[in-house]
TrEMBL record:
<dbReference type="InterPro" id="IPR055259">
    <property type="entry name" value="YkvP/CgeB_Glyco_trans-like"/>
</dbReference>
<protein>
    <submittedName>
        <fullName>Glycosyltransferase</fullName>
    </submittedName>
</protein>
<keyword id="KW-0808">Transferase</keyword>
<dbReference type="Pfam" id="PF13524">
    <property type="entry name" value="Glyco_trans_1_2"/>
</dbReference>
<dbReference type="GO" id="GO:0016740">
    <property type="term" value="F:transferase activity"/>
</dbReference>
<feature type="domain" description="Spore protein YkvP/CgeB glycosyl transferase-like">
    <location>
        <begin position="195"/>
        <end position="340"/>
    </location>
</feature>
Length: 356
């Protein structure tokens, strides 16, 4: 009798996070999944905790130890085949070795930059990352850096969309008033992004900007009046992409990023995707047919002018982009299948994953 794959997942468990969508990918493949959510342990820090972390570089000792002890006890009671950790800033090297000694395959996925954006790592992760059997990254530039750091089995996978969340959503009259706009952007503030969007604001486009840190832009920016003041997730985000004539997909300036989750999420919601021009973007979508791209603030303004004024072309491109992500099966379920294939675990039938 073939054994159902048991996967212990550790990471953010809130709906809309790519970790949760990956965990659901295992479930959809028929795996038996147990989840330890990091949300309840970390991230909502008090001021004293933040000061402690600034000095010690780790969370409060009691919280940190309780978290790792929970993983250890779950390994003992659940006896998984795989320990799958997303980000894992506070999962210790000792826990990874503890799992490996029990014959568990350990896999790490970092949704951000491990090497080029130090906000998304920790001294704990820097030590632990070498102990994982497999590391997974969606950042092309990180692959070689992982290898140079000493990681032997590095798997590159593209980002994805979650069909349970990212799909066309009809807008009510009230939602049309809330979400319809010329240009939308969903993501954190970086100054080059703010400058480019402020340039559009000065050209009198209607703009809606959702995300964090947008209160940090210069007070004299015209863009200030278009910032919604909060992040947005799940079906609400799908409505943003549905309501905007153009949804902009900036890439971070922190490293040589080639694509992001928005690359697939916007077209999956049948939104018009106008992204930064990169080799990977052009490999995924035919420019001017399934999406379009820009390489400068000036070209962004030119493309926005064209597509906001040409509804028929815009809608045709959005539809082709939607069809492309469906055709590519760019889902988290499919990405999980790729991880399991890389790990040497076969998919049997259409719904079940079993050990080879």
């Amino acid at each position: 009798m073939k054994k159902q794959l048991k996967v212990l997942c550790v990471g953010a468990g809130w709906r809309g996070s790519n970790s949760k969508s990956l965990f659901n990918g295992f479930v959809k493949l028929g795996c038996d999944v147990r989840i330890i959510e990091t949300d309840g342990y970390f991230y909502n820090y008090s001021v004293p905790e933040r000061l402690y972390m600034k000095v010690r570089k780790v969370p409060l000792k009691a919280k940190f130890q309780k978290f790792n002890k929970t993983i250890e006890r779950t390994i003992d009671s659940y006896q998984p085949d795989i320990l799958f950790v997303v980000k894992g800033l506070w999962v210790t090297e000792e826990i990874i070795q503890y799992a490996k000694l029990r014959g568990i395959t350990t896999i790490h996925f970092h949704p951000d930059f491990l090497f080029d954006d130090r906000y998304h790592t920790s001294l704990i992760l820097d030590k632990a990352i070498l102990s994982y059997d497999i590391v997974v990254t969606a950042k092309t530039t990180e692959v070689e850096k992982y290898k140079q750091f000493g990681c032997r089995n590095v798997h590159f996978m593209k980002y994805a969309y979650d069909p349970d969340i990212h799909h066309p959503v009809p807008l009510s009259e009230a939602e049309q008033r809330a979400f319809q706009t010329d240009v939308a952007f969903v993501g954190r503030m970086e100054l080059p992004r703010a400058d480019a969007l402020n340039n559009l604001a000065k050209l009198d486009y209607d703009i809606k900007v959702w995300g964090t840190k947008w209160d940090k832009i210069p007070k004299n920016y015209e863009l200030n009046k278009y910032c919604e003041g909060r992040p947005i997730f799940c079906e609400e985000m799908a409505k943003v992409f549905q309501g905007a004539k153009v949804s902009v997909g900036f890439l971070t300036q922190l490293s040589s990023e080639q694509h992001t989750a928005r690359t697939f999420e916007i077209p999956a919601c049948q939104g018009f995707f106008l992204g930064t021009r990169t080799e990977e973007h052009i490999e995924i979508f035919e420019p001017g047919v399934e999406a379009d791209f820009f390489s400068s603030t000036e070209e962004l303004a030119e493309k926005v002018a064209f597509y906001t004024q040409n509804e028929e072309i815009r809608n045709r491109v959005a539809q082709k982009g939607y069809e492309k992500v469906i055709q590519l099966d760019a889902t988290y379920e499919n990405r999980v299948t790729g991880i399991l294939e890389f790990a040497g675990i076969a998919r049997s039938g259409s719904k079940q994953v079993v050990l080879r």
